[in-house]
Each structure stands twice: as C-alpha cells, then as structure tokens.
Amino acid sequence: MVIDFLRKLLIVIPVLLLQVLVLDRIHLFGYATPYLFIFLILISDVKTNPAERMLWAFAMGLVTDLFSSTPGMHAASATLLAAIQPWLLGLFVSMDRREQFVPGLESMNSRQYFLFLTVGTLVHHIVYFILKTFSFQDWSVLILRIGASTLLTVVLMAVCEYVFRVKKRRRR
What we know:
By secondary structure, the protein is an all-alpha fold. The chain has helices spanning about 1-20, 40, 50-70, 75-90, 110-135, 140-170.
C-alpha cells in the first residue's frame, strides 16, 4: 500500500509541476489553456477505491488551485470528474470487462478511448469554466473557452498517451 502510494506520488508530482509551472501560463489565442493533470484522473484504474480516487483528484485540484489563484475551482471540478469516471467509462466499455480495467489504447479501441477522454475533459472544463466565470452573461466566450481548452487538453493527452504508453509497449 505504501509502495503504491509512493508510485502514484512519483507520477503526480511531475505532472502537477508541469501543470502549474508551464501549462497554466499557456493561453492559446487567449482562450485555450490545457489542463493535463485531469489525464491522471481519467486513466485511473477502475478497481481503485472511489474515495481514494476522489481524494487524489481533490489533492491535485487543490495544488493546482493554490498556484493558479482559483479558490477551489479545480478541486471541485477534478473531484466531480473522479466521482463520475467509472460511470463515464461504463458508457464506452461493456460492464463485463470493467473488473480489472485500466483505460488506455491497450484495453480500448482508439475511437472509444479518445471519445472517453474527450467527454471526461469536456465535463471537467464545463464545470471549471462555469465556476470560474460564474456568469452566463458572455456565453459565447464561455463556450469558446470550454471548446478550445478541451481540444488542446485532449491533443496533449493523446501526445502523452503515445509517448509514455505506446512507446513503452513497443519496447517490450
């Protein structure tokens, strides 16, 4: 259990450092900001205890909030994403395959997997940007921010999937 915790921590720390030091400063065309840390929530193992998954998501969101001056917005949206991740995965994978299941290109076809990532990212971004703006006054900008950030985040997730998982599989 301690080894599992340390292994997760060794993955989470670099991703959070990348998020708060580099990615939070990217505002492509003034609208798109990638939030890569949610990738760790989306690809978490299905057999992970839901409370543990939500606690990790809350902690990652809270750390991101502390460095980006967004009081609780990332923590709330990340925790919600962690809560619905198994249900969301159930939309794309049959129930009999979900016992020992880790979302990825090895276990899902590419269409299912990227649709799963896109819908999960969209859920996170809708909640986050609505909490951040707390207004529907300029809804066209809100929709543009949600869409552009979702697209940029999913592209970054696809790059990470290829670099860290597919190349690792090819080495075996």
